C-alpha cells in the first residue's frame, strides 16, 4: 500500500488549498478513505471520511462547511478542498485507510499564517 499526499504549503488565514492523495497497492474503489492530520505537539485527528463511491462524506465539526472531501476512482486519488483556513488548521495532513491514521502514508504540511 502506498499513499502519497501533496498540495500543502503556506497560506494566509482565510485562504484555500486543495490536497491530493495518490493511492496504489490496493483496491481503491472498494475502500473508505480518510484524511487525518497532526498538528505540532498533538495527536492524530481524523478530519474527513469518504465512502468508496464518493457518495457519503463525514467531517469533524471544525471542518464542516469549510472542507470538502472527494475522490476520483479512475485516478485512485482522494482530495481535500480546504477553504476559510485558520491557524488551527496548521498540521501535517495525511490520507489513510483507517480513521485512526495507523495506515497513513506520507503527509503534506499545511501552514496557515500571515
Overall shape? globular
N-to-C SSE string, H for helix and E for strand: EEEEEEEEEE
- Class based on secondary structure composition and strand pairing: mainly beta
Number of separate helices: 0
Q: What is the overall pLDDT average?
A: 97
Number of strands: 10
**Main beta sheet: strand number and arrangement?**
6 strands, mixed
- Radius of gyration, in Å, reads 13 Å
Distance between the ends: 37 Å
Contiguous uncertain segments of 5+ residues:
none
Helix proportion of residues, in percent? under 10%
Beta-sheet strand percentage? over 45%
Question: Which properties best describe this structure?
Answer:
114 residues; mainly beta; six-stranded mixed β-sheet; globular
Summarize the structure.
The protein has about 110 residues and is mostly beta strands. Helices cover about 0% and strands about 50% of the residues.
What does this structure look like?
It is globular, with a radius of gyration of 13 Å. Helix content is 0%, strand content 48%. The chain is mainly beta.
Amino acid at each position: 500500500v502506498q499513499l502519497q499526499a501533496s498540495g500543502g504549503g503556506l497560506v494566509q488565514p482565510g485562504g484555500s488549498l486543495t490536497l491530493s492523495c495518490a493511492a496504489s497497492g490496493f483496491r481503491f474503489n472498494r475502500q473508505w478513505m480518510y484524511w487525518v492530520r497532526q498538528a505540532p505537539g498533538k495527536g492524530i485527528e481524523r478530519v474527513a471520511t469518504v465512502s468508496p463511491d464518493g457518495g457519503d462524506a463525514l467531517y469533524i465539526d471544525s471542518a464542516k462547511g469549510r472542507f470538502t472531501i472527494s475522490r476520483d476512482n479512475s485516478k485512485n486519488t482522494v482530495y481535500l478542498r480546504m477553504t476559510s483556513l485558520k491557524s488551527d488548521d496548521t498540521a501535517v495532513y495525511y490520507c489513510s485507510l483507517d480513521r485512526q491514521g495507523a495506515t497513513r502514508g506520507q503527509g503534506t504540511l499545511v501552514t496557515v499564517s500571515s
